[in-house]
Amino acid sequence: MSIDRKLEFIIGEDKNLTQLLEVSEALMVLDGAVRAGACGAEISDSNRVLLAACGGESPFSAMRAILVEGEPAGSVVVYAADSGARLEGIADMLHAALQTLINGAMKRMLTSEAHTTIVNQSYDELLETNEKLSGSERQYRELAASLETKVQERTEELKRAYAIMLQKEKLAAVGGLAAGMAHEINNPIGFVISNLNTLTKYATKLKEMLEFYHTNCEPAIPEDLARQAETRWRELKIGYIFTDLDGLVNQSLDGARRVQKLVADMKGFSHVGETGAVPTDINLELEQTLSVLCHEVRAGTVIECNLGSVPTVRLNPALLSQAFLQIIRNALQLKAPALKIVVTTGQQGDDARIQIADNGPGIPPDIRDHIFEPFFTTKDVGQGTGMGLSLAEQAVQACGGKISITCPPEGGTVFTVTVPIGSEHS
Amino acid sequence: MIEFDEQAKKLVVKLVYYGPALSGKTTNLLCLHDQLCNEGRGDLMVLDTVDDRTIFFDLLPLFYVAPSGFRIKLKVFTVPGQVRHDATRKAVLQRADGIVFVADSQKGKMGTNAESFANLENNLSMVGLDIDKLPLVIQFNKRDLPDIISEDEVNATWGPTGLPLVMASSLQGAGVLEAYRRIVALAFDALDARLELTARYGVERADFVSSVSRISG
Ligand SMILES: Nc1nc2c(ncn2[C@@H]2O[C@H](COP(=O)(O)OP(=O)(O)OP(=O)(O)O)[C@@H](O)[C@H]2O)c(=O)[nH]1
Ligand SMILES: [Mg+2]
């Protein structure tokens, strides 16, 4: 605070005689001495400068020192026609009168000094108090103004945290289910596959035997019987069965194997029983995610994988694959003719980089900033929860990584996820 | 230090008697005025009082000229002890070169003594003075009264501070000069350390202290 105050009093500052003695008052006292019988009287300061004089000089004089606070500050001289008791008496009286005047003036000055100093000081203190008060008032105003935004921010944070928690719970539930299902499905599917294999062998043998009869035995049996056999062969479409059987069994085997793989991927994707950071193969996570999502891939959609070499990264794989799931699912839902999604992985500096690009309509610049906000969606009601990308961002951040979007001029959207290779996040 | 004029070879020094209301600050000054030789001693200025209670301050000025011609004006102030005159206390405290803290020895006054001392510490920092560097003498006054705390108790409480302690009865004149002489000497030392009064201006400590505390008669 700068208060421009030129007047500064320091209590007790030294004063000289001219400050303390009004000439008009001094003259009155000197005049009194002359009237009492002196020829003249005069006052000078410590430098012998005349301050006041009355009457005239004469050969006989008496001098008294004037003291201010014990310090010689000047003198008073009385002139008389002759020396003696009268002269000394007048001098004493004049001196006493002057000292009384000076002391009175001194007291008055000290009092006003003290008064001024105190008033100024109190004024300064008031100003300071006022400054402080208006300062804190300003603070409260700002606080009130920012409170709303703060509340909003906190609410968003809470929403995110809640969503993440929900998602984690869901993940755990799905994981548990997947684990149980995987167990239940794996065994029968194992039988099915192994039995189908056996069945193929059996069928081959039966076919071979039937073929043998057909070619070698039929000519040796009575013609009537042979004709019956021929008719039955055709009626039962054995020839067709022979050609179809292999394909049929192979298709079944293929289907069963796919079920087996899906179950394994689902189990892997949900990372049941795994918590915290483990060395993770990012490419494997992506493959599993894509596998889990295969039923959501519409006909005509092309998914291209350019998986480069990426070192294993210590992180929570469940979170990362959750992020992949959300991003890829978001892309899969795009309404674009001949939708193409390109997944690219590789290493860039100290980061593992995963890019998921689509050839969709892109994201308008004005909503790009909102894309990761919880409950933000441009999709039709019921299509999306608006949580997907928010979850993806949270999950990537929880892995110590970053997520960003760019919309290249040639169209589409590219999601880029980077995670530091040295990262130790869970 | 109120003023230091190297050309005019003059120094104006300020001492302040501080303490709770009615501890005897004004009485200390009255006593000094009576005891000190009137040569070089100015008149005691007792500014307006209400019922004998100081509302501004009291001032006893003393004047000393060293053989070298260097002049020192010593101004001894009291502050009003009443709590409500805090602004005045602060104003008087400005530029002080030494403090005599006049405590009331009466039992039951220890609380107000402590409050006043805390107020001194606070006000010193407000006027930019460092209590750890400022010469300070503690005077326990009214030792003539019957119901007072013992000297042992005083020593036990104040001894650890390392501050000079003086037992006094300003009404009877005991311990008044002693406290005054000690603060004059301490203030001189502090000023000498800053201004080299002896080395540069030929002011001898012993001569100064004895001159401004010479008793009359
Ligand atoms: N018995 C006794 N009474 C004392 C002594 N010193 C002061 N008093 C009395 O205490 C009362 C207050 O004394 P002051 O000197 O006016 O006190 P003060 O510290 O100047 O008080 P404020 O100006 O209000 O701060 C007076 O009645 C004094 O006579 C002492 O040593 N002994
Ligand atoms: Mg007083």
Return the string of H and E elements of chain B: EEHEEEEEHEHEHEHHH
H/E order of the elements of chain A? HHEEEEHHHEHEEHEEHHEE
Q: Largest sheet of chain A, described in full?
A: 5 strands, mixed
Mean pLDDT of chain B: 93
Tell me the number of helical segments of chain B per DSSP (H or I, 4 or more residues long): 7
What's the number of structural domains of chain B?
1
Number of helices of chain A: 9
Shape of chain A: rod-shaped
Structural class designation of chain A: alpha+beta
Task: Decide which structural class fits the backbone of chain B.
Answer: alpha/beta
The tally of beta strands of chain A, per DSSP, is 11
Oligomer: heterodimer
Q: Biggest interface and which pair forms it?
A: A-B, 22 and 29 residues
Radius of gyration of chain A: 55 Å
Structure commentary:
The complex is a heterodimer of chains A (426) and B (217). Chain A has 426 residues and is an alpha+beta fold. Chain A has a domain at 274-426: Histidine kinase-like ATPase, C-terminal domain (Heat Shock Protein 90, 2-Layer Sandwich). Chain A has nine helices and eleven strands. In chain A, strand 8 and strand 9 form a beta hairpin. In chain A, helix 3 (85-217) runs antiparallel to helix 5, helix 3 (85-217) crosses helix 9 (388-398) and helix 7 packs antiparallel against helix 9 (388-398). Chain A starts with 16 loop residues before the first helix and ends in a 6-residue tail after the last strand. Mean pLDDT of chain A is 82; it is low at 1-7. In chain B, strands 1, 2, 3, 6, 7, 8, 9 and 10 form an eight-stranded mixed sheet that branches. A two-stranded antiparallel ribbon of chain B has the order 4-5. In chain B, a hairpin with a 2-residue loop joins strand 4 (49-50) and strand 5. In chain B, helix 5 runs antiparallel to helix 7. The longest helix of chain B has 20 residues, at 176-195. Chain B is globular, with a radius of gyration of 17 Å. Chain B starts with a strand and ends in a 5-residue tail after the last helix. Classes of the chains: A alpha+beta (426), B alpha/beta (217). Chain A binds chain B through residues 10-14, 67-71, 103, 106-107, 110-111, 114-115, 117-118, 121-122, 125, and chain B through 2-3, 10, 12, 14, 40-43, 45, 47-48, 56-57, 59, 61-63, 71, 73, 75, 77, 87-88, 90-92, 94-95.
